[in-house]
Design goal:
Helices cover 0% and strands 35% of the residues. By secondary structure, it is mainly β. The protein starts with a strand and ends in a 19-residue tail after the last strand. The chain folds into 2 domains: 36 residues, no CATH class; 52 residues, no CATH class.
Amino acid sequence: MLALLPGGVQFDAKVGYVDEDLDIALLKMEASEFPHLTLADASTVQQGDAVFAIGNPDDAMLYSMTSGIVSEPLERVRTNYSQTPTAS
């Protein structure tokens, strides 16, 4: 299989997983040129930083992604969570 990415970049790909109910497939491509994000050290987060949360918080919401701006860093909050404004 040939995967064509934006910009005309092409890679040989193999199907790694298919979920027909969700109409989605996972492709495996051998490459090192993909852009990526580096995870931050949570202890360095500051007020005003843009943040993203990706995951599945419970069984009712399997695939979730949200973003926000840190309004209160960890060192000023008495829990293990940073405070961010968000909308559902």
